[in-house]
Structures are given as structure tokens and as C-alpha cells.
Amino acid sequence: MLGTDGPRPACDGVVDLLHALGTDLHERQAAAELAIRAMGISFTVYSEGANIDREWPFDVIPRVLSTHEWDRIAAGLTQRLIALNLFIDDVYGEGRAIRNGVVPAEVVGDSPNLRPECRGVRPAQGTWAHISGSDLVRDGDGTMYVLEDNLRVPSGVSYMLENRQITKRVFADLFRDLDIHPVDAYPTRLRELLGSLSPRPGDLPVIVVLTPGVHNSAYFEHAFLAQQMGAHLVEGRDLVVDDEVVYLRTVGGLERVDVVYRRVDDLFLDPEVFRPDSALGVPGLMAAWRAGNVAIANAPGAGVADDKVLYAYVPALIHYYLGEEALVPNVETFVCLDDRQRKHVLANLDHLVVKPANESGGYGIFVGSHASEADKDEIRRRVEADPRNYVAQPILALSTAPTLCDGVIAPRHVDLRPFILTGEHPYVTTGGLTRVARQEGSLIVNSSQGGGSKDTWIIDPDVGRPAASGLTIEVRDR
């Protein structure tokens, strides 16, 4: 919210109003936490074999960005997902990018997310990753970077939407006085996207959200999105495939399904093709998809581009497929599979973050500046034993945002996950899920690692600002 010379563009009005609140800010935090309990917003932490439901951790002070900066970010994320979808289509098709040396063959060939079963398939509209979430961070120089891409089953959008509902409750006066761009359109845009994939375009599409069940950490989100879209929330046992057509079991009999928004990992989707011991998927689902009788979002195999090693090559892929430079840059990334880069990583562990290529939730991350000698020995052993599975990045001077911590406002590191829908009409949420580290100095923002969240406000600094008296210059219906 603050730059080196004071409030960032679009932030000055918010800073003034937050100052004016004084101790009332604490009352609004308490009101927000009460609303979270009343609304039943929770998430699940897997800890030592137990599933622990927790109230969603929320900080009432929003993160603010200007529309000027956001417009470029949104264009950059759209550009990125167009290129990544072309790459996935290429991987399961002609393999041109690999043949032309844009991406080393071993990066793709050794990917645990490569699905040879998808070769030769052409999904609807040529799109594989329909729903994605890219994590953004701001460095000390003020530049916003893409930190990683999430193309398998990205989560968090429901919390973005609920954060907005809560802040509307406790900051109704600010929403009256400031030009805060809405995020409410996401469920409608998601349903439109999913409906456009239907193999029966003339009929009202039947859409289901396929969940692993109530014990999954993101079950709240699965149920929330199904409810918001008017879709069926189903588990694998609720579906059946007959003659390569998917049906939903209902009390009135079988109902044909057109689109499956799956929140189940590839390997559990269909026990006839992937893991035979999976009870989460649907036997025959892959055959129905390959026959074109049902759409699956995201398409099986899309995760081949959700790999922190592949991330290092995304700017080159944008140039290769689109002939453009990346609008939002990558963080400098060292690929441990490369001998020269691996030597650099192992010689400079104190100054690097080392990440496993296909973990999520902040697990397995090594931060050199916080590591003991034993930690360094352990990560060195792991990298040398399996270099394909690791990348490293410089420790950034990650930006902070003012956060209420034990009743005191203090700076805490943040990142940001906007959500991107890719199809005939690409869409990027005007904002996203800001995640915040609750521990002083921590760079880990994941909720499963004790992180919290904030609402993200995109404000046009040129449209209107509240006068000191609280009078408004422009009010929009949100």
C-alpha cells in the first residue's frame, strides 16, 4: 500500500480512511471474524494424518492496486495462458516446441504430470487449462512478477469471493466512497465457460462439479462453486458411463452429463485408465472424453504445464507461439536439471529459495536465509539425488502489506493469486486472493502453513476519491 514516496497510486484514499477509523478498525476485524463463523467459511489442514477444520483466516485491511497496473497484469496473464494452452496442445500433438529446442525433451518426458493417454486428443476449442490461478509477487524494485502457474485444480477462488462479501459487510462505507472494482462476476463467467464446452451446444448443458468428497481440504470451495453456478455437486459414485456417455444418477433416473468440472487429480479420475484402486473417479470417463461425448475442465493432462521446471521456459514459449515478449516477467529461475545451473544453486544456497517442482501448499520449500547447516545438507542431498525435481530462485525482497497482528498493525509479506478463465472469451478476475504470512519475516503465505488472507481492491485512481469530509465523488452499484 505504501511505496518509497508514500501511498502507491490508488492507495492514498484508503490509507486516509483507515487512519480515520482508529480503534474502530479492531471492531471491524471482530465483526469480520464473527461473519466468517456465521457463514461457516472454513478450510481443512492435513496435519499428522488428521484433518483439522479451521475458520478461514482473514485480515480486514485490504490490499490495494491501481487499475493502471492491473490492466497490464491482466493482459500478461491472458497472454501467458494462451501460450501455455498452445504448449499443452503441442505436447499431445505435434511436439514442435520440443523438436525445435524451445523446451528440453527431458523436461516434458520426465514430468510426473505428462499423461501419454491424452496424446491425439483435441479438446473443445483446443483449450486444455480452462481454469488457472497464477501466483504473483512484488519485488523490492516495485515490479510484479509471476511466481508460478497453477493449472491442475487451482483453489482459492471461493475465498476471494467470500473475502469480498465480508469486506462489503464491515466496510460498507468504503465501498460507498471508493471505486472498487467487483469480483462477483466470476461464478457467472465460469458457468458460461463450462457451458460453452458442451458437446450438445443446442441444449441447456448439464454441468457437474466432481469432488473427492467432504474430507478434501477444498470441499468448501467445491460446494460453494456448485451452488453459485447452479451445477450438481457430485462424487464419482454419482456418475456412470454407458456406451461412452456420462450419466448422473438421480431419483428420476439417469440424466446425461455434458460438462465435468473436476476437482479430482488426473490419476484418480478413471480407474480403468489411471490408478485402478481409485474410488474417487468414474470408470469409463476417459473413453467418454476421448469420444467427445463429455467435456472435462481442466482437461486431463493439462498439468504437464503446471510444473515449476516448465515455468522457467514460459517466456520462451510466449515468444515461440505468439511472437511476443512476456508482459509480466518471471522470477529468475535456475533449473537443477541443468548441470551448470545446479552447480550455481548448490554453491549459493544461502541466497536462494529451493522448491520441489510439483509440490503444492508450500510444502518442501527451502529458504536459504532461514536454513540451518543441517537443512542445507539435506536439500543438497535431495537436489543431487533428483535434480529434475528442483528449481531455485533468488530470495526476493517480497512486498509487505499492513496487517492486524495481535491487535497491532504490522507489515507482513503477501502474494496474490488472480484467477484466469481461458476459452472463447478469456477473463481475469479484477483482483484475486491475497495471501499473507502471519509470522513476522516469514515468506510462506499458504493457509496450510499458517498464512492468512486479505481482500484485494482494484481501484481506478483517476475516477474519484473521497473528500476529507467523507463526501463521495463517484458511487457505483456493485
Q: How are the secondary structure elements laid out?
A:
Elements: E1 2-3, E2 6-7, H1 12-21, H2 24-39, E3 42-47, E4 50-55, E5 58-66, H3 67-91, H4 96-99, H5 105-109, E6 131-138, E7 144-150, H6 157-170, H7 172-177, H8 186-196, E8 207-210, H9 219-229, E9 232-234, E10 239-242, E11 245-250, E12 253-256, E13 259-262, H10 285-290, E14 295-297, H11 308-311, H12 314-322, E15 334-335, H13 339-347, E16 352-356, E17 366-367, H14 373-385, E18 390-394, E19 400-405, E20 408-417, E21 419-421, E22 427-428, E23 433-436, E24 452-459
Parallel strand pairs: 5-24, 8-9, 8-13, 13-14
Antiparallel strand pairs: 1-2, 3-4, 6-7, 6-21, 10-11, 11-12, 15-18, 16-17, 16-18, 19-20, 20-23, 21-22, 23-24
Helix pairs in contact: 2-6, 3-12
How would you describe what is shown here?
Strands 5-24-23-20-19 form a 5-stranded mixed β-sheet. The longest helix has 25 residues, at 67-91. Strand 6 and strand 7 (144-150) form a beta hairpin. The chain is built from 14 helices and 24 strands. It is globular, with a radius of gyration of 23 Å. It has 478 residues and is α+β, with helices and mostly antiparallel strands. Residues 466-478 have low confidence and may be disordered. The protein has helices spanning 12-21, 24-39, 67-91, 96-99, 105-109, 157-170, 172-177, 186-196, 219-229, 285-290, 308-311, 314-322, 339-347, 373-385, and strands at 2-3, 6-7, 42-47, 50-55, 58-66, 131-138, 144-150, 207-210, 232-234, 239-242, 245-250, 253-256, 259-262, 295-297, 334-335, 352-356, 366-367, 390-394, 400-405, 408-417, 419-421, 427-428, 433-436, 452-459. Helix 2 packs across helix 6 and helix 3 (67-91) packs across helix 12 (314-322). The protein is 30% helix and 24% strand. It starts with a strand and ends in a 19-residue tail after the last strand.
